[in-house]
Amino acid sequence: MIFDNILLAENSGIATITINRPSKLNALNSTTIDELHNALKSIKDRIEVKVIIITGSGEKAFVAGADISEFADYSIEEGSNLAAQGQKKLFDYIENFNKPVIAAVNGFALGGGLELAMACHFRVASINAKMGLPEVSLGVIPGYGGTQRLPQLIGKGRAMEMIMTAGMIDANQALSYGLVNHVTAQEELVLLAEKLASKIMRNSSVAISAAIRAINSGFKDGVNGYQAEIDEFGNCFGTEDFEEGTTAFLEKRKADFPGK
Predict the structure, then answer these.
(1) Is residue 88 included in any domain, yes or no?
(2) Pair (182, 223) in one structural domain
(3) Among 167, 170, 200, which residue's Cα sits nearest to residue 183?
(4) Are 55 and 119 contained in the same domain?
(5) What is the pLDDT at residue 221?
(6) DSSP characters for the chain?
(7) Do both 239 and 126 map to the same domain?
(8) pLDDT per residue as tens digits for the range 240-250
(9) Which residues does 122 contact at the CB level (< 8 Å), separation at least 6?
(10) For the chain: N or C, fewer Cβ within 10 A?
(11) In a 10 Å sphere around its CB, with 0-12 CB exposed, 13-18 middle and 19+ buried, how is residue 98 labelled?
(12) According to the model, what pLDDT value does residue 48 have?
C-alpha cells in the first residue's frame, strides 16, 4: 500500500505509523486522516502485528494541529460533517482498535494532534513535547473528541482550563496530569515505545483485545462497564490463549500464545 503523507513500517510484531508532512509540521488534513485509517485497517486482522506505534516525522512535531486551510470557509453543515466523519473514520476507530495503539509524542501535539494522541490507548512523550487544544483562539472548539477525552484523562477542571485558555502544557506537566504515561529524551522516545510494546507482546493478544473493549465500555453512555467486564472475562475461557496461558502457568513455563 502506497501513502503520500504517512510511512508504515513493521518489525517484530510492531507496526510503526509515522505522519510524514514535516513541512506542515505533520498537520492533519483529509488525505492524512484517510491514509491513517487505511493503514490501520490494513493491519487490523493480521495476527502477526501485535502493537501499533503512531508518531510524527522530524524533531518538531507529532501533529501540530489540523490543516486549517482545508476548512476555513466551511458552512455549519460542512463543519459538522467534518467532525462526524473524522471521529468515525479515525479517532473513534483508534480508540476501539483491537490492538494496542501507543502515541509517541515527539514535539508539538496541538488541536487535532492532541486529539489523535488522546484517541490512542496511551501516550509517551519526548521532553520537548508541547500539548494543547487552541481551537477557541480560532473561534471554534475541538471537534475530534477533545472535549470528551481530555476531561476523561485529566479531569474536568484542568480540561476546562486548557481548552478555555487555548494554552499549551509541557511534557512534565502532561505527565503530572496523567495525560502521558512516560517522558524521555527525544532520541529515546521510539525506543521507549518499542520497549513497552515488547512487554505487551509477551501477553495474550486475545485477552488484550478483550481488555480494550471492557475498559472502553466504562466510558460509554448507557453501557454497564462491570457487565461488559463479566462478559469479556467469561469469553476468555473459550479461547486457545486461555488454555495455553493457564497450562503454561501450571507447568511453570513461559506461555506461547497462539493469538486465538
Answers:
(1) yes
(2) no
(3) 170
(4) yes
(5) 87
(6) ---SSEEEEEETTEEEEEE--GGGTT-B-HHHHHHHHHHHHHHTT-TT--EEEEEESTTTEEE--B-GGGTTT--HHHHHHHHHHHIIIIIHHHHT-SS-EEEEE-SEEETHHHHHHHHSSEEEEETT-EEE--GGGGT----SSHHHHHHHHH-HHHHHHHHHHT-EEEHHHHHHHTS-SEEE-GGGHHHHHHHHHHHHHTS-HHHHHHHHHHHHHTTSTT--HHHHHHHHHHHHTTSHHHHHHHHHHHTTS-------
(7) no
(8) 999 999 999 99
(9) 102, 103, 180, 181
(10) N
(11) middle
(12) 94
* pLDDT of 94 over the 90 cut: yes
The label of the residue with cell 504515561 reads 181
Number of domains into which the chain is organized? 2
104: domain CATH number is: 3.90.226.10
Residues 123 and 219 in one domain: no
Q: Which residues are catalytic?
A: 115, 135
Question: In this predicted model, what pLDDT tens digit does every residue of 42-71 receive, in sequence order?
Answer: 999 999 999 999 999 998 999 999 888 888
In a domain, 129, yes or no: yes
C-alpha cell at 219: 466510558
Domain extent, residue 243, equals 205-250
pLDDT at 66: 84
Examine the domain organization and report whether 12 and 26 are in the same domain: yes
pTM score = 0.95
Question: 47 and 152 share a domain?
Answer: yes
Residues 183 and 240 in one domain: no
- The region of weakest confidence among 57-61, 90-94, 107-111 is 57-61
The grid coordinates listed for 95 are 480508540
